[in-house]
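Reviewers of the previous submission asked for a worked example of the structure-prediction workflow described in the proposal, so we include one complete record here. The input consisted solely of the amino acid sequence. No template or homolog information was supplied to the procedure at any stage.
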Amino acid sequence: MTETTMTDKIKHIMAGALIAGAVGIPCYINSNDLFAGLWACLAGVIAGIVKEWCDNNTEGNEWNWRDLGYTCIGVAVAMLVVLGLHFGRG
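From that input alone, the workflow returned the following structure tokens.
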């Protein structure tokens, strides 16, 4: 994997984690409902799908399943944070 490709993948992971965390963590904190927080994290997946759809509809670019997969890895990280907040309360 080239350095540019690796940087792109890290950006996808970070974007997924940031978007999912920015929506999911406050949703969980405000509602104290674990499932509300986890469902809200799916905003990161939706953002990844929209980004790939835009790429697919841009000349010279195409849909990339791997990019979406890396975005979902970032979403999973945010979901782990929500789980940690929930079970860390004791």
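The chain has one domain: 3-87. We consider this example representative of the routine output the project will generate in years two and three.
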